[in-house]
Amino acid sequence: MQKVSNGELNNLQGTSNLERQLLMMRDAFRQHQNEIRKKYKISANEMEIILYVNDFGPQRMKGVGEQFKIKFSTLTSLVDKIERLNLVKRVNSKEDRRSILVTITKKGKKMLEEYNSQIKSLADRITEITQSEDLPQIVATLEQATA
To answer: What pTM value is reported for the model?
Structure first.
């Protein structure tokens, strides 16, 4: 992780206050997420698999491998590890018993709540300090910026 120091922020020519704040938020999120990954002893790739399964529901191993463009043998090792940590589990598909699905566990959901807690805290803080009539405009601006 490469953090942008205050000195570097001041030296970035043409960087607006908004850009500086976004860079600082990025670094804070990254640091928090790294702490959670360290606590649960998982890599960035393992976290991405957990996030993917959480966001899109139970996934076939083959589909996960295709999504992340990794070999099946590598994926098997990654899933083995996060399954041993009880963050995901493998289950047989009800439609096709030959197909193995990766699904998130309760412990995996709890870990993701911790992982995303900083974003929730920031949203709560923004809501707290913003006039209620201004909040829809902030949300609309963020939606447009991320579309």
So the answer is: 0.77
